[in-house]
């Protein structure tokens, strides 16, 4: 089977490379000539563990290729995945302009039956719009080809995306006709053989499933962050509480980690979008709206923690920061909590020194006032406080003696609860964490 994936960003590139690993002939398409040239040379536009090796192997074996020629890729494919960006609009809605442009271009170049699959995260009803845009592109052509539309939402975690694709918890396929259903089941046959649960449903349900999943996970994060705030008020330990409730199988232990709030390309955008299209549908999603409010307030609470250990005044103080990406194992800075927190510290007069294992280049674009350092220990030099912002594994076993020598004051604000309070205080640090 030949497929094309339009959009060679995070979702599109991982999707294309993983399907190629299944033995499918895949063409990844992007309008960005520089990105395609880089991919042809083996240069990845994103950091994702194992992706460069996966791409190189499948390019070498002739199953994966890259192009800017959308018409040719569409004509040669039976299944066309749309995996372009769907950014937030200022009102919280979803910008579908990239999806619309792709749908119209696909329609102009279809020369036979195709299954058009929306992989991008889109509001309910988008596949109906995709069908309309494709049909409008046909004009008055009496021999317009048949096609099906489908929704196949992605559930890829940055930093673990290849494993999530190859060994998923589930695959959701939303279709409206048996022909498209049969083709997509055949495409995902390797996962059927692994007994992966496949949820077959209609398109609207598939579209909403992705939002419901992300909104629920975001709710768990905002919930435990509010519990952490209460713990600080009453002297309780949020980590013990998270364990105590997480061992209940009805709740589960995942996403119960108190910290600076959620970020990244999915949770902030998807919660805003869900609240927006729920309102457009004539109702409201009050739980999600509360989740958004809690998360929006989180950076200020973290800033207060840092300022407090600086005796209430950040002016001319040096803040050393470890971790900038929104989570470990990615260079993604989209909606990263570090952005608002560090900008807030700079506005209060602080000098900020920072290090991240992968996100430095992306961080420079959104945090121009931050001095980027070459290592964890360089970032610590002369710091009045060390802030642990992102829980990269290499920050879990720092040489604390060396850190203490490099800091001008032995003070740590651990926004990810990486270390245990008592040992840190016995080691001579003023140690502040979240909810403990």
Structure description:
It is a single chain. The protein is of the alpha/beta class and 436 residues long. The chain folds into 2 domains: 2-201, Rossmann fold (3-Layer(aba) Sandwich), CATH 3.40.50.720; 215-432, Rossmann fold (3-Layer(aba) Sandwich). The protein is built from 18 helices and 14 strands. The strands form 2 sheets. An 8-stranded mixed beta sheet has the order 3-2-1-4-5-6-7-8, sandwiched between helices. Helix 1 packs across helix 3 (51-60) and helix 10 (203-234) packs parallel to helix 13. The longest helix has 32 residues, at 203-234. The radius of gyration is 24 Å and the shape is elongated. The mean pLDDT is 96.
Low-confidence stretches: none
The beta-strand count equals 14
- For the record, the CATH architecture of the largest domain stands as 3-Layer(aba) Sandwich
- The CATH class assignment of the largest domain is Alpha Beta
Mean pLDDT: 96
* Through-space gap between termini: 54 Å
The Rg value, from CA coordinates, equals 24 Å
For the report, how would you describe the main beta sheet? 8 strands, mixed
Helix share of residues?
Answer: 40-55%
